[in-house]
């Protein structure tokens, strides 16, 4: 039921986003009664494969200044990547990417020279309510 509450909260947020693919609020009961996908996950606890998109235009500081975009630019301090480790299937947490996410975050914070406490905003893809 805890995962269904997470999904209900996420569906509620879609009601406030005019660009959301689905703008449907669902109750915990409706979510729990939707088609079972795997284990405790039901259809309304999983994102569709067409969900989400992102884009970034990367350019040098010189171009930012040339085009007068200083007030809109975001400086990327670090980028890191990690992949599944051999023990990824040892726990449900690692199966959904916890270990590799933790590893990539630690590397990025170290490279950027900051801590998690210094970050005000993060965008995170949570494709399942169990994530």
What are the salient characteristics of this protein?
131 residues; mainly alpha; two-stranded antiparallel sheet; 5 helices; 2 strands; 4% strand; globular
How would you sum up this structure, described in words?
Helix content is 34%, strand content 4%. The chain has 131 residues and is mainly α. A two-stranded antiparallel sheet has the order 1-2. The radius of gyration is 19 Å and the shape is globular.
Concise account of the structure shown:
The chain is mainly alpha-helical and 131 residues long.
Percent strand equals under 5%
Number of helices: 5
Strand order of the largest sheet: 1-2
Percent in helix: 25-40%
H and E string: HHEEHHH
C-alpha-based Rg, rounded:
19 Å
Shape label: globular
Task: Summarize the SSE layout with pairings.
Layout: H1 2-14, H2 28-33, E1 36-38, E2 41-42, H3 61-66, H4 92-95, H5 98-112
Antiparallel strand pairs: 1-2
